[in-house]
User: Which sequence fits this backbone?
């Protein structure tokens, strides 16, 4: 199988560094986490579940733009809705009634939602959720999960980040371990009447570490504890939204959140996010002044309406879970054939991979010997046309087919063969 080269990408990266910090800002420029010699740096165009780089190489994309591509790149129905709205208006002094149409659709789709507030990024609405919880309760403290990710606002930075420059913003945060109801109860006991909210993703999904599903009774116990203590239960569904259940990931796991944050899958790449909540928190949201010049743009709202309706019509979560399981089951079997173990954690529609040399090993370190194997194996996939990352969960999108999965497994087989002599 042909392996790719990236002369044009590398050339453009040198130019980018002249004008842009790091060449590529943000999480896609984290060179220390990725075997960059195997990666394209710049894309040229995309269609369905594939993109092409500036060297003409074609990639089956399991990163899906880090999540927003849920229907497939350039989905014709979403693009048509967006372009029809563009001809009328987009970012205007007063909002389009598309805002009302989208809010009504979300209220009729997401179990928790009695109202919807719109912004642009996932971090916008996770920050707003904390403000609403504080406004509703008159309290200041928030409980989070260790190593959780809720955006890049100062409060959401990892403890100790940037030599402690965010300590002031984080002084009202309480971190506990995932799946530990006991630590939540302890935090409440140590801070009586002070905790406004508890925020978490539906399951544990940090970067650089294995993902973990909730224990069987975890969410029902957390729900009861929050209700009993007047704590707002906030679900960060930015990454998982619509990939587990069209009614929200809280329904998938059998509980009801008070606030739900969504973004990535709302509009198939058009820029929009939403905070949704129960009726009793609507007044608190009205009290918080939180806005942006582009937040009421109509084009992303039209795209979102088309995207959600299409996802509903095709029962997208079922399709995504099925294709993800087909791929991850295949990877596990291939790894055994080569004497390795492929650890698959999280849900099949947005899975996390890690390859271990010792099939019996129960722990691993991304920057240790197993990390070297894993990075090498990921890189061999990428340079053969299957785009994965080694430090983040991957995504399935609705444009993928069983033939795409079969191709990805053929590439994985070659990648195993390529690393076997080195590890």
Assistant:
């Amino acid at each position: 199988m042909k392996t790719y080269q990236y002369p044009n990408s590398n050339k453009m990266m040198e130019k980018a560094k002249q004008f842009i910090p790091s060449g590529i800002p943000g999480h896609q420029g984290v060179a220390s986490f990725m075997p960059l010699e195997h990666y394209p740096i710049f894309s040229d165009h995309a269609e369905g579940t594939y993109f092409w780089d500036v060297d003409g190489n074609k990639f089956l994309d399991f990163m899906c733009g880090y999540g927003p591509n849920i229907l497939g790149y350039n989905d014709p129905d979403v693009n048509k809705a967006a372009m029809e709205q563009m001809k009328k208006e987009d970012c205007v002094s007063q909002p389009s009634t598309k805002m009302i149409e989208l809010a009504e659709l979300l209220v009729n789709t997401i179990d928790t939602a009695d109202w919807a507030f719109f912004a642009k990024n996932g971090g916008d609405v996770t920050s707003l959720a904390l403000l609403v919880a504080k406004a509703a309760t008159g309290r200041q403290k928030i409980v989070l999960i260790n190593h959780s990710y809720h955006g890049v606002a100062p409060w959401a930075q990892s403890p100790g980040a940037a030599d402690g420059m965010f300590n002031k913003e984080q002084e009202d945060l309480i971190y506990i371990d995932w799946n530990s109801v006991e630590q939540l109860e302890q935090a409440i006991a140590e801070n009586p009447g002070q905790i406004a909210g508890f925020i978490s993703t539906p399951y544990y999904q940090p970067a650089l570490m294995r993902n973990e599903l909730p224990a069987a009774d975890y969410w029902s116990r957390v729900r009861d504890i929050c209700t009993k203590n007047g704590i707002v239960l906030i679900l960060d569904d930015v990454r998982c939204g619509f990939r587990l259940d069209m009614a929200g990931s809280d329904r998938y796991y059998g509980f009801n959140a008070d606030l739900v944050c969504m973004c990535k899958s709302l509009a198939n790449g058009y820029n929009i996010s939403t905070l949704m909540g129960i009726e009793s928190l609507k007044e608190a949201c009205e009290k918080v002044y939180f806005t942006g010049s582009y937040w009421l743009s109509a084009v992303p709202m039209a795209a979102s309406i088309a995207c959600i309706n299409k996802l509903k019509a095709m029962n997208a979560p079922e399709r995504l879970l099925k294709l993800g399981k087909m791929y991850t089951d295949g990877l596990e079997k291939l790894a055994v054939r080569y004497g390795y173990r492929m650890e698959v954690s999280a849900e099949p529609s947005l899975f996390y991979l890690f390859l271990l040399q010792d099939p019996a090993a129960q722990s691993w370190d991304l920057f240790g010997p197993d990390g070297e194997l894993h990075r090498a194996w990921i890189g061999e996939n990428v340079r053969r046309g299957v785009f994965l990352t080694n430090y983040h969960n991957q995504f399935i999108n609705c444009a993928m087919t069983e033939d795409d999965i079969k191709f990805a497994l053929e590439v994985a087989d070659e990648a195993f063969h390529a690393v076997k002599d080195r590890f």
Summary: The chain is about 35% helix and 15% strand.
